[in-house]
Amino acid sequence: MSRVGERPGFGAYLADLWRRRRFVLTLAEGDFVSRHQNNYLGMLWAILNPMLLGGAYYLIFGVLLETTRGTDNYVLFLTSGLFTFIFIAGALTSGSRSIIGRMGLVRSLRFPRIILPSAVTAAELLQALPAFAIIVVIALLTGETPSLEWLLFPVAVLIIGMMFLGVVMILARVLHAVRDTGNLMPLLVRMLRYVSGVFFSIESYASGIWSVILAYQPVAISLTMVRETLLGSMPLRWETWAVSGGWAVLFLVVGTVVFWRGEADYGRA
Amino acid sequence: MAARERGTPTVVASHLGLTYRVFGAGSGYREQDEHAWWQRAFGRSTRAVGVREVEAVKDLSFVARHGEAICLVGRNGSGKSTLLRTVAGLMPPTTGSLWIAGEPRLLGVNAVLMSKLTGARNVMIGCQALGMSAAQARAKFDDIVEFSGIGDFIDLPMNSYSSGMAARLRFAISTASVPDILVVDEALATGDAEFKARATERIAEIREQAGTVFLVAHNAATMKEIARRAMWMEKGELIMDGPVDEVVDAYSAKFGRKARAQRAAKAADEAADEAS
């Protein structure tokens, strides 16, 4: 017999997640479909949305405010950063609500709850795939020459996915414990948008210790990593990849443990 | 899966207590006029916003065995659903302890799957959430659709279903494989007569295969047909536990239609006596 309300061992928990990995995909697909089925254009919006947003940002920052200092191919610089940020912002916003937004499911079926943040992050990745494809098209159109480094682009996306899956698991538990923190999420996402060099090059605007902190925080380093794979003017630097890899491992491990420790509580409240 | 030997315990509750948090538990409209708007807006003391703890189940102990169907009776709000959610392993006990053998499964009116998605997707999600592989879920798919009897609606989003149709689909998914412990929380109430008959049959099958069934229903005939044992809960406490006929009769004697009519008649008599 097993005791209700006792969390499983860490190893057993991960094994259970691995056994049900197909379920994560099924849920992610469902999430993706349900998001687009209420529009006439349906999944076309997964492509239209980032393109329209990219156009708007280009008009505001590239043409009107001219934050193009220190960037070579500004169109690619902007879109690669922006589309990657949209993925990150989406994962943070819906991932943090992955438990409290699905209480119906949590209260009616028994499965390892870690599946929920994982599925939501996977759904955001699915949702972002068209945008990532557009980045490659824009790179070609703006005169970048394809090189072997481009093969690192999907690797960078994967590292970013792992990193923010970890962050999302921490946030999902915090939001479940203290719902009020949900009100701070939009603020957090907006702050990150402006300090992470989405539409300007951090090095050209900040200096000294601030420049280092700003450039190596998880979101900014993620954008830099993506840009290094595609922009000819930004060569690969080992620091970028070491730091983002470090963030990814750190958040994934801490996130999984933090989420697992709350496993027994997710049904309550 | 645990060995299903008739008579061995499947659920053991020992001094079980369940408390849950309710958000937005305000004092409502009743006291609004007594406070100025700034007090209502800023003070948690007015409890216009806030969290309240509700003690749904108090110090409950019982043992359930393989092959047993147990019916819970009690008025609305007596803690039946909360208890069943815990038996289904979905809500952790606050005090005391609850032990279960095998895999429990809850079937409730509130057990929403994902209402924006089609029935077909929900079948896949539901089956996989219950631990089946994608291949097993596909293999069971036709059976589930057939049993639910919702036909072509399977390709429409679940929010277009009537409550009866949704209940049938949920029941079909939850019983696609025989669970060790099946918890049925008023899930039969919304179905039509034909569905109730099929569901009752399936519950009997599950009991035959030595699963344990917990059931909340408000119809004495349904309860007596499905269960042999009943537990009567009142304000979170277990006040009677025994053969279904005795418990249900005792319950009806206190709260049933006849009892109400008798009380009303007695009150009317007294009023008439006073008047004369």
Record the SSE blueprint.
The complex is a heterodimer of chains A (269) and B (276).
Chain A (H helix, E strand, L loop, with lengths): L1 E2 L6 H10 L1 H16 L8 H20 L9 H23 L6 H6 L6 H27 L10 H26 L7 H11 L6 H4 L2 H9 L1 H13 L7 H24 L8
Chain B lengths: L8 E15 L13 H6 L8 E15 L3 E5 L6 H8 L7 E6 L3 E5 L10 H11 L4 H15 L14 H12 L6 E5 L7 H16 L3 E5 L3 H7 L2 E6 L2 E7 H12 L1 H19 L1
Parallel strand pairs in B: 3-7, 3-8, 5-6, 6-7
Antiparallel strand pairs in B: 1-2, 1-4, 8-9
Helix pairs in contact in B: 3-4, 3-5, 4-5, 8-9
What does this protein look like?
The complex is a heterodimer of chains A (269) and B (276). Chain A has helices spanning 10-19, 21-36, 45-64, 74-96, 103-108, 115-141, 152-177, 185-195, 202-205, 208-216, 218-230, 238-261; one strand at residues 2-3. The longest helix of chain A is centred in the middle third of the chain and has 27 residues, at 115-141. Helix content of chain A is 70%, strand content 1%. Chain A is built from twelve helices and one strand; from the N terminus they run βαααααααααααα. The model of chain A has no long low-confidence stretch (mean pLDDT 88). With 269 residues, chain A is an all-alpha fold. Chain B has helices at residues 37-42, 80-87, 119-129, 134-148, 163-174, 193-208, 220-226, 244-255, 257-275; strands at residues 9-23, 51-65, 69-73, 95-100, 104-108, 181-185, 212-216, 229-234, 237-243. In chain B, β8 and β9 form a beta hairpin. In chain B, α3 crosses α4, α4 (134-148) packs across α5 (163-174) and α8 (244-255) packs parallel to α9. Chain B has a single domain (9-107, 175-275), classed as P-loop containing nucleotide triphosphate hydrolases (Rossmann fold), CATH 3.40.50.300. Chain B is 38% helix and 25% strand. The termini of chain B are far apart. Chain B has 276 residues and is an alpha/beta fold. The longest helix of chain B is centred in the C-terminal third of the chain and has 19 residues, at 257-275. Chain B is built from nine helices and nine strands. Classes of the chains: A mainly alpha (269), B alpha/beta (276). The A-B interface holds A 1-5, 20, 22-23, 26-27, 29-30, 33-34, 37, 104-111, 179, 264-265, 267-269 and B 2, 9, 12, 20-21, 23, 85-93, 97-101, 103-106, 108, 110-114, 116-117, 121, 124-126, 128-131, 133-134, 157. β1 (2-3) of chain A pairs antiparallel with β4 of chain B.
